[in-house]
Design goal:
This protein is mainly alpha-helical. The protein has 16 helices and no strands. The protein has a single domain, classed as Na+/H+ antiporter like fold (Up-down Bundle). It is globular and about 60 Å long.
Length: 403
Amino acid sequence: MREDLVRWGLLLFVSALVAMLTRRLRLPYTVGLLLAGVALYFSPFRAGFPLSRDLIYFVFLPPLVFEAALYMRWPEFKRNLPVVALLATVGLALAAIVTTVGMHAVAGWPWGTAALFGTLIAATDPVSVIATFKDAGVHGRLRVLVEAESLLNDGTAAVAFTIAAALATGAHAGLASVAGEFAWTIGAGVACGAAVAVAMLALAGRTRDHLVQITISTLTAYGAFMLAEQLHASGVIAALTAGLVAGNARADSREAAERRVAVESFWEYVGFVVNSLVFLLIGAHEAQLRFAGVWPALLAAVAFVTLGRALAIYPPCALFARTGLRVERTHQHVLFWGGLRGALALALALELPTTLPEREAVVTVTFAVVAFSIVVQGLTMTPLLRRLGELDEVALPPFERLS
């Protein structure tokens, strides 16, 4: 127990050092954390923590999704909902199909294995995406599109993976049954998130103690997630909905506004800590992997995931070209290259059944694709934004806040 506490303390200390160093070097914080995690593994103070599916999915993911949604303003989200919903459904399906076909044809993976990989890797991680764009100082509609799409994409990918996993393990279901399960998973997730958030907001309104309100908001994030999972709905969708509801509740007095600031400051810190731990542990786990023998599959995966992301963005956006929701071409380029992968893809990969053919290869390739997106896309994002004219050259904050 004492050794575990020392290790967690070491990780927090390293995350603070990385935050200061990357700010001075004007590097993405997530990239610094990943590299620091690799370095920790080869140091005498290696972290030694198992990066399990339950740790990512049930401990790290609820507060990360909730915190990301907490700052999303409902009017902006609703205005762009047709676009981001199409990207997160039709776009995600196109990306998954391209990756599935490519990995079956080139890497030789069985159809079921390729389909599971294509589905889980189609999920763009809101933590990685939002952290990178806040580091870069992106504002306006572009930031709304990127953040909203990554949040919805995360939820629909988790739902699609659950269905694909059931089919891959022998469950036989018709189209109507699959559609019904998909609708239940999303609809019940939304209902759980909204119900928990409304109930907790009513409870929080009965106290002026900001510490109690912070506690209630924490229960909201985990409570919505766990309730949805108990009902076989999407915990990610529930946490997203709860964050949107809680974040858009009106403060009806000056005191209430001050308490809201305290709650948001707490979640800013939670986002920093949890995000730091996630990426440090990803880096440490990457250092343990052995890529010998999977290089062809790895290179194929990077190529097909990139192609799939392009098809997920450009064709759906073309449908809005003659409407008031038209997405600028430069914004489409950023949405394409800004589709970073992260914690959710890893959690889904680690959830794959041990009997699945090529399971170890899938897990290894997933970690490699996540590392590629964080390092390569993360490092090139700010130069791309600057080249496309999407950054304010006068004020380019290298590190606003992490999550």
